[in-house]
Write a structure and sequence with these properties.
- The complex is a heterodimer of chains A (320) and B (278).
- With 320 residues, chain A is an all-alpha fold.
- Helix content of chain A is 78%, strand content 0%.
- In chain A, helix 2 runs antiparallel to helix 3, helix 5 runs antiparallel to helix 10 and helix 9 packs across helix 10.
- Chain A is globular, with a radius of gyration of 24 Å.
- Helices cover 75% and strands 0% of the residues of chain B.
- Chain B is elongated, with a radius of gyration of 22 Å.
- Chain B has one domain: MetI-like (MetI-like fold, Orthogonal Bundle).
- Chain B is mostly helical and 278 residues long.
- Chain B starts with a helix and ends in a 9-residue tail after the last helix.
- In chain B, helix 4 packs antiparallel against helix 9 and helix 7 packs antiparallel against helix 9.
- The chains are: A mainly alpha (320), B mainly alpha (278).
Chain lengths: 320, 278
């Protein structure tokens, strides 16, 4: 078991190196760098003075070094936990991440919680009352969830709120610790929209797994020994059908941090996603690199965690 | 004809999806005849509500929303089909060949796939678009980069099974060349999985294109992308709700049809092949 975890952790290294290198090179290919943006913002026409300013900024930020050297010095910093300074906000990238990460995390957790609370019962009901009107209703609900792109759901929720209640969610972010009500007033809507989307595949998977498990001998045994239907469904059938659901939810959970960007934009949540979009357009390389690195790391960690939870859920699985 | 009626009975949802897909294709192909105005033709009064002249109203610069929704079908389908065809084909060949070669080629290529898949797809696409510049064809390139590694991973696992099968050993035993084994035995046996990947990923590609355009990083704003139309609509939520309702409806219907169709193709070809990008 321990050697398995160590081997998996070792595989993180090429994945993270490759991913960060890819983003690094891509950002260098973007036309126009921060020096040009900073200088041209202030003046309108190109002059010799501006050219000299641009060169000076590039020298200060190390942008005139060869890309390989820049990358290696970034890696050298990153392994020591130093992700450099943001070009535009003039403060350590780590401070920005520390400020933004908890917000996106909160939104992600809220989303997953809502999705699970809604999707798993939906899948169970669908399976237990198979082919009943209830089942069809549940299946249509989940199919439509799959077909509505995130930005459509988000836009419709916003429109619904404006139209029915003449109210838009707060545009100013308030931390949960300061004012939970005000915080949830803003975050509940993007979480609902995103949860509606994710819940569709979860409900479908739960349903098909339940249908599979309900036919097993041990479920018949459980019924035969006189257990209540409730105990049969929840303790025997559901527990055994959740395994693939866990993988799927884990995969989605790991992706969520980067996938929330659309919701953050629509509902003006100052999280990781909005910061990233902004940083890309401002050519703020250090911020982009640090955030993408963190998202990749979270994705890999969550995937590993899911595989370990597997062992706990199903003792038959054994990693050597 | 008998085949068709059997398909309808066996897969009613798939058949319904097929009809929606056919309608989508028809609208895309006939767009120049169906649309009353050009996709970029402006100059009418802005924010006109739906009327007989503009059944879906006009947008912020006075373009006919219905015409743009119709032209949008062409753009979506073009991006979806071309990117999936190139991305899935390249990834499938890559996955099949590295699975066959095994050893360092296989391990090395899997590490590359790991690296690309560790990045959030929409963020990777965003960075690609920033580097390439905004245009419809660059959206396709970004999508190809997104789709290739996923296809490589899926087809690799299928191909590993094929490589280990007795008929491959038999082919080797009779002295078939490496090229012949790959072309005559390996690739045909991965074809079912390939077709499933194609049909299930068109809707994914369409959604990613629309999402990118929605963020403002996809097709240029004057292109009739359903995603881009929604961005403009959100700015005018109270005054011109038709600007989000109709493009939103169009993309949802298209994705719904493609999903139904793709699902039933998957069930018909091989029920074990669940997974992919979903």
């Amino acid at each position: 078991m321990r050697s398995y975890v160590v081997r998996r952790l070792l595989l993180f290294i090429p994945a993270l190196l490759g991913a960060s290198m890819l983003i690094f090179v891509l950002m260098r290919l973007v036309p126009g760098d921060i020096a040009e943006i900073l200088v041209y913002q202030t003046g309108s026409e190109t002059s010799g003075v501006q050219q000299r300013q641009i060169q000076q900024i590039r020298r200060e930020l190390g942008l005139n070094e060869p890309v390989v050297v820049q990358y290696l010095s970034w890696v050298a910093g990153a392994v020591r936990g130093d992700f450099g300074k943001s070009y535009t906000q003039r403060r350590p990238v780590w401070d920005i991440v520390r400020e933004r990460f908890p917000r996106s995390m909160e939104l992600a957790i809220l989303t997953l919680a809502l999705a699970l609370v809604w999707a798993i019962p939906l899948g169970v009901i669908s399976a237990v009352y198979r082919n009943s009107p209830l089942d069809y209703l549940a299946r249509i609900a989940s199919l439509s969830g799959l077909s509505l792109p995130l930005f459509v759901t988000g836009a419709l929720i916003l429109y619904g709120l404006v139209r029915l209640f003449h109210w838009i969610p707060p545009l100013e972010f308030v931390p949960f610790s300061e004012n939970p009500v005000e915080n949830l007033k803003q975050l509940i809507w993007p979480a609902l929209a995103q949860a509606f989307y994710i819940s569709a595949p979860i409900a479908r998977l739960t349903r098909s797994q339940m249908l599979e498990v309900i036919r097993q001998d041990y479920v018949r045994t459980a019924r035969a020994k006189g257990l209540t239907e409730r105990a049969v469904v929840y303790r025997h059938a559901l527990r055994n059908s959740l395994l693939p659901v866990v993988t799927f939810v884990g995969w989605w959970g790991g992706r969520l941090l980067g996938g929330l960007v659309i919701m953050e934009i629509i509902f003006v949540v100052p999280g990781m996603g909005t910061a990233l979009v902004q940083a890309v357009s401002q050519r703020d390389y250090p911020t982009v690199q640090a955030m993408v690195f963190l998202m990749a790391l979270v994705f890999l960690l969550v995937n590993l965690l899911v595989d370990l939870v597997y062992v706990w859920l199903d003792p038959r699985i054994h990693y050597a | 004809m008998r085949e068709v009626s059997r398909l309808v009975r066996r897969q009613p949802l798939g058949a319904a999806g097929g009809i929606i897909v056919l309608a989508l294709v028809a609208v895309a192909v006939l767009a120049p005849r169906l649309a009353w105005h050009g996709p970029k033709e402006a100059g009418f009064a802005p924010y006109l509500p739906p009327s007989a002249e503009f059944p879906m109203g006009t947008d912020q610069v006075g373009r006919d929303v219905m015409s743009r929704v119709i032209w949008g079908a062409r753009l979506s389908l073009y991006v979806g089909l071309v990117s999936v065809l190139f991305g899935i084909t390249a990834g499938s060949l890559w996955g099949a060949v590295t699975a066959y070669l095994g050893g360092a080629a296989d391990t090395g290529s899997q590490r590359v796939v790991d690296a690309v898949m560790a990045l959030p797809p929409i963020i990777l696409a965003l960075a690609l678009m920033a580097a390439l510049g905004q245009s419809v064809n660059n959206v396709i390139i970004a999508l190809v980069v997104l789709l290739t590694p996923t296809a490589a991973r899926t087809i690799r696992s299928v191909a590993l099974g094929v490589v280990a099968s007795p008929y491959m050993e038999a082919a080797r035993a009779v002295g078939a060349s490496r090229w012949r084994i790959i072309c005559r035995h390996l690739i045909p046996n991965c074809l079912a999985a390939y077709i499933v990947l194609i049909t299930t990923n068109v809707s994914y590609a369409i959604v990613v294109e629309a999402s990118l355009s929605f963020i403002g990083a996809g097709a240029p704003p004057d292109e009739p992308s359903w995603g881009g139309m929604l961005t403009a609509g959100i700015q005018a939520l109270e005054t011109a709700p038709w600007m989000i309702l109709f493009p939103g409806l169009a993309i949802s219907l298209a994705v719904f049809g493609l999903n139904l169709f793709g699902d039933s193709i998957r069930d018909v070809t091989d029920p074990r092949l669940r997974g992919g990008l979903g």
